[in-house]
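Cross-check.
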Amino acid sequence: MLILTTAVTAGALTLTACGSRDDKGGAEKGGDGGNVTVTIGLDAPLTGELSALGLGIKNSADLAVKTANEKSYVKGVTFKLESLDDQAQPSSGQQNATKFVADKTVLGVVGPLNSGVAESMQKVFDDAKLVQVSPANTNPSLSQGINWSGGEKKRGYKSYFRTATTDAIQGPFAAQYVFKEAKKTKAFIIDDKKTYGAGLAGTFKGEFEKLGGKVVGTQHINPDTKDFSAVATQVKSSGADVVYYGGEYPAGGPLAKQIKAAGAKVTVVGGDAIFSPEYVKLASPAAADGDIATSVGAPIETLPSAKEFLANYKAKGYKEAYEAYGGYAYDSTWAIIEAVKKATEGNGGKVPERAKVVEAMQGVSFEGVTGSVAFDEFGDTTNKQLTVYKVEGGAFKPVKSGTFGG
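Predicted model, tokenized:
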């Protein structure tokens, strides 16, 4: 590709030839009538055990990009999606973040799925003033700092945003349902020692005990082993009537199956990372029957705001389901599109540098697939709704939606 000359004026990119780009992160001149190409990066597990969720995120982001281009939503801009696979590994996520930063056409990144992966990416993006919007991260410390639970909330990275609500709400929401409505009073709590799982289990435990529930046992597992017979025996002998699992479905399904096979008469409960048909398959429909998962937002199949997304997703013929985070991935991508639009319009119609997109993101507000999309002072979503799902007839069915305390 021939690169001629560029000029940067007041932080904006002046394009003089195909392939020109701004060293501070700008855009590339496209071949479609002079439009500038802006790349939106996507990081998720596209292979491996969590790929069902990752591919749903990728497809939904792709749909948002295609929709924006079909509508010519941002005048003079053509969006392109660049997807990288992190395999749910923090080291891979960090490498991907570095690749996105190096590509000066990238003005925003959607992802990742895992909170632990996000931890490895945040500083890379923030140093480059490259906006990041996750559709799935739920660990509160990512936006509110490590001392958030003690009331000392501090935003560490101004470039980090998310459309999924946090475990500061999800864990207690689950505890209230389990104790007050499912009438479970003795919990055995297990986590996978990862950022997401341990954090979620901790917030469930705090609220469950506050309500008067008794924690009769705690344990950590290595999710890679898939042999949970020892902890299954502990659960049976503990007298627990509920198991809360902080972790993801690849281990959660086999764990539930082995706990039930050991003879423990318990309901297994978890968060949004077990809310997948894959959990039921791995546990087996019989063993999973009655198990519970909480997930962010309301079921998008019930939302009038999601009708167009659902129809378009089907019409595009994506092979994989949108899964738990599809609507949030679409909204995360669209938030970046809105921020680019806002920053461009405020910059004389020229695509600005990355820092201006970060600034614009803080004020983004629109009606998305999942409802109202906006961000608070920490970069967290202002939409705090959650839903309880129960496995019935071999599939998760919604049983209650609401907010913590509501």
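The longest strand covers residues 36-44. The CA atoms of residues 57 and 365 lie 21 Å apart. Passed to J.P. for a second look.
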